[in-house]
C-alpha cells in the first residue's frame, strides 16, 4: 500500500458517497420530471 492514511480517507469518502447515491439519484429524477411537466 502506498499511503495507509490516504487510503483510509479515500475509503471513508467513497463509503459516504455510496450511502448518499440513492438520495442524489432521486433528486435528479424529481427535477427531470418537474422540468418536463412545467415546460412541455
UniProtKB/TrEMBL annotation:
Top-level taxon in the UniProt lineage: Bacteria
Classification via Pfam families: SpoIIID (PF12116)
UniProt xrefs under InterPro entries: Spore_III_D
Name of the molecule in the record: Sporulation transcriptional regulator SpoIIID
Native organism: Selenobaculum gibii
Amino acid at each position: 500500500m502506498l499511503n495507509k492514511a490516504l487510503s483510509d480517507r479515500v475509503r471513508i469518502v467513497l463509503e459516504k458517497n455510496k450511502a448518499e447515491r440513492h438520495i442524489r439519484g432521486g433528486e435528479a429524477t424529481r427535477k427531470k420530471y418537474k422540468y418536463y411537466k412545467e415546460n412541455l
